[in-house]
């Protein structure tokens, strides 16, 4: 082979100026151009207002989804500075903030004591990825305005329009309003999902006690009624909210806070906690400067270590553990615990651009000391609650011992020869997890078709029978006695629960392939609950997928056409208006032969897979508790509230 001659010299090196780099590689700045990236635009603007609230200058944030598809965010903070920029004398400071990457008041320590935005790219990135941005600033008694278009081009330089409106007390208003319209040439879809936004806003309100966030959806076919989030109890109310669909072990919500300051800055930790009667030990959720640290970090490490030591010390001092008995393990104590750890610090160090893990070592020490002192005091002052916690922890320890033997029986014995794998698993020949896929298929009939259809080199098939155990309502020892759960654990190979070993998983794609009906949806939810509670690293690593078998088939001439969903059917009918009565509804994967199943659902060249992610673990925790728990009223309310966001409902 020979390559065409090219030149690689100084002229080949390009520098993307200003916001051009953002439009060229938007995923580097907002994660993706899909729904997550679209909603991230709103978060970037709102986060600036939240920073004003954390600094003590804003008390409310108002968010509106405009009728024409735009979004407006207003706060009553100090207002973006409007004076001339020191570094860019021909620009106002507000124009610099909107057009220059890494520009903001979060670097020198003068503008913000603590903030979530570290890189100063937020609002300028929103500007780069919008068709139009309008900014209004009330500051020093005057109202200012400016506008940008087509990815950040200044079309209306910052100028005064008059006096600022006055508040109820007659004083001039201060604050910032930002309106933006996402660029449809950048994003796959520019339709905001109200539920996604309100979930995030509610979490922000919980983490900032007293902050008032209102949301109004003024788009056609939406009510336009305001929704308000305001919690004077802060993270204590957050714990009550997460536990609302669970049976609390006691009514009180524990709480403590502690802070430290020195010449290098300040650190603050606040913790709220309450146990419930459930069996999950993953109810710990942490935040740093309002950012969800889903991978934990130093603050979580300090709390877990101190929680284990403090409860064991109390248990021995009060006779819950005898001298010869072993200490309780952390997972025993955390069973049924819902806890929110929120820390604020001047210079947070996050691992990676995703800000998923906090790396500040001094924060671990602060949280550990605070938990040692404050939790010990709380246990002594609440002997009845402490007794219930210890009784539950001791029961969890006994169940853990009972589960140990069951876990050993399901653990994969050899990664090389397949010993110990479930008999009904049709494994793939490849031993490289990076190219291996496991299809979990509902029913023996569909499993047989999938085995015939697959590429045996890289695709493994595991048929499951009926609905697996609802792990939301079962301890690990009971769960490990379930035949289908045993098969899942053995096939995947990484173990289960706190002992899950990510490096031992046998497949980097685990695909849930269920029928497109109510029963199939239920089975899929049971499986997702299992993975979320017992193998969460699989979800966090992006290894869980949902297959998308077609819902309809029809024939055009001699060709059979498969249509994925109602939207695809509607598009097809728009092109073939005389074709309304040939359609067949496909409800079972077992109805397809091997060739059909391969062509429509399994062929990597044609299939559609939905990747499952957990962007906000605390929200996922709440949803799984509601949908799979015992509280019928909470489940009914959830379904009614989210009915407008259902994309497909099988009737």
Architecture overview:
This protein is an alpha+beta fold and 651 residues long. The protein has four domains: 20-230, Histidine kinase-like ATPase, C-terminal domain (Heat Shock Protein 90); 235-407, 2-Layer Sandwich (Ribosomal Protein S5, domain 2); 414-549 and 596-614, 3-Layer(aba) Sandwich (Rossmann fold), CATH 3.40.50.670; 552-585, no CATH class. Helices cover 35% and strands 20% of the residues. A hairpin with a 2-residue loop joins strand 11 and strand 12 (291-292). Helix 3 packs antiparallel against helix 5 (122-128), helix 3 (35-54) packs parallel to helix 6 (194-207) and helix 12 crosses helix 18. The model is unreliable at 1-16, 410-419 and 643-651 (pLDDT under 50).
Summarize the structure.
By secondary structure, the protein is of the alpha+beta class. It is 35% helix and 20% strand.
Q: How is the topology of this model organized?
A:
Layout: H1 20-24, H2 27-30, H3 35-54, E1 60-65, E2 71-75, H4 93-99, H5 122-128, E3 130-139, E4 142-149, E5 153-163, E6 175-182, H6 194-207, E7 212-217, E8 227-230, H7 235-242, E9 254-262, E10 265-275, E11 284-288, E12 291-292, H8 298-317, H9 330-334, E13 337-345, H10 361-381, H11 383-410, E14 437-442, H12 444-453, E15 459-464, H13 476-479, H14 483-492, E16 509-513, H15 518-534, H16 536-540, E17 544-547, E18 552-556, E19 559-563, H17 566-575, E20 584-585, H18 594-602, E21 609-611, H19 617-628, H20 632-641
Parallel strand pairs: 1-7, 11-13, 14-15, 14-16, 16-17
Antiparallel strand pairs: 1-2, 2-6, 3-4, 3-6, 4-5, 7-8, 9-10, 10-13, 11-12, 17-21, 18-19, 18-20
């Amino acid at each position: 082979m020979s390559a065409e001659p090219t030149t690689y010299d100084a002229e080949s090196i390009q520098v993307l100026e200003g916001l051009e780099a953002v439009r060229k590689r938007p995923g580097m700045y907002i994660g993706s151009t899909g729904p997550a990236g679209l909603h991230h635009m709103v978060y970037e603007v709102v986060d600036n207002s939240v920073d004003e609230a954390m600094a003590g200058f804003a008390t409310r944030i108002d968010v509106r989804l405009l009728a024409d598809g735009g979004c407006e965010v207003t706060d009553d903070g100090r207002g973006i500075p409007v004076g001339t920029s020191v570094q860019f004398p021909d620009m106002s400071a507000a124009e610099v903030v909107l057009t220059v990457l890494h520009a903001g008041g979060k670097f020198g320590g003068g503008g913000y004591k603590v903030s979530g935005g570290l890189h100063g790219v937020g609002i300028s990135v929103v500007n780069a990825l919008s068709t139009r941005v309008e900014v209004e600033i009330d500051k020093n008694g005057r109202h200012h305005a400016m506008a940008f278009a087509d990815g950040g081009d200044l079309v209306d330089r910052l100028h005064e329009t008059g006096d600022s409106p006055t508040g109820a007390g007659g004083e001039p208003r201060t604050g910032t309003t930002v309106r933006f319209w996402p660029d449809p040439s950048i994003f796959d879809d520019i339709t905001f999902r109200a539920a996604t936004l309100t979930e995030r806003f509610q979490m922000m309100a919980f983490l900032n006690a007293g902050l008032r966030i209102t949301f109004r959806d003024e788009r056609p076919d939406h009510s336009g009624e305001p929704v308000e989030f305001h919690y004077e109890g802060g993270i204590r109310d957050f714990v009550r909210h997460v536990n609302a669909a669970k049976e609390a072990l006691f009514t009180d919500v524990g709480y403590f806070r502690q802070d430290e300051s020195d010449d290098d800055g300040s650190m603050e930790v606040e913790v709220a906690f309450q146990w419930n009667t459930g069996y999950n030990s993953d109810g710990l959720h942490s935040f740093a400067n309002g950012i969800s640290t889903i991978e934990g970090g130093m603050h979580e490490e300090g709390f877990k270590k101190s929680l284990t030591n403090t409860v064991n010390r109390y248990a021995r001092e009060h006779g819950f553990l005898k001298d010869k008995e072993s200490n309780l393990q952390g997972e025993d104590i955390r069973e049924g615990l819902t806890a929110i750890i929120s820390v604020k610090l001047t210079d947070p160090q996050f691992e990676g651009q995703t800000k998923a893990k906090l790396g500040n070592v001094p924060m671990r020490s602060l949280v550990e000391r605070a938990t040692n002192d404050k939790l010990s005091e709380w246990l002594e002052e609440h002997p009845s609650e402490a007794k219930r916690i210890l009784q539950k922890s001791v029961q969890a320890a006994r169940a853990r011992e009972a589960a140990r033997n069951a876990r050993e029986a399901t653990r994969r014995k050899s990664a090389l020869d397949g010993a110990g794998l479930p008999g009904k698993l049709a494994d793939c020949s490849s031993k490289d997890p990076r190219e291996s896929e496991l299809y979990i298929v509902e029913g023996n009939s569909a499993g047989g078709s999938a085995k015939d259809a697959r590429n045996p080199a890289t695709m493994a098939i595991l048929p499951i029978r009926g609905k697996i155990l609802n792990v939301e309502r079962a301890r690990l020892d009971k769960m490990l006695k379930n035949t289908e759960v045993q098969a899942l654990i053995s096939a995947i190979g990484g173990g289960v629960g706190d002992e899950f070993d990510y490096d031992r998983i046998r497949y980097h794609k685990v695909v849930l392939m269920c029928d497109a009906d109510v029963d199939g949806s239920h089975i899929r939810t049971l499986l997702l609950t299992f993975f979320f509670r017992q193998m969460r690293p699989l979800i966090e690593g992006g290894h869980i997928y949902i297959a998308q078998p077609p819902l309809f088939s029809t024939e055009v001439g001699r060709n059979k056409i498969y249509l994925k969903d109602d939207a695809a059917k509607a598009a097809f009918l728009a092109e073939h208006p005389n074709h309304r009565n040939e359609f067949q509804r496909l409800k079972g994967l077992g109805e397809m032969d091997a060739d059909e199943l391969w062509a429509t659902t399994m062929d990597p060249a044609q299939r559609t897979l939905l990747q499952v992610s957990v962007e906000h673990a605390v929200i996922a925790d709440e949803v799984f508790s509601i949908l799979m728990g015992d509280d019928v009223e909470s489940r009914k309310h959830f379904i009614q509230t989210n009915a407008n966001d259902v994309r497909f409902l099988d009737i």
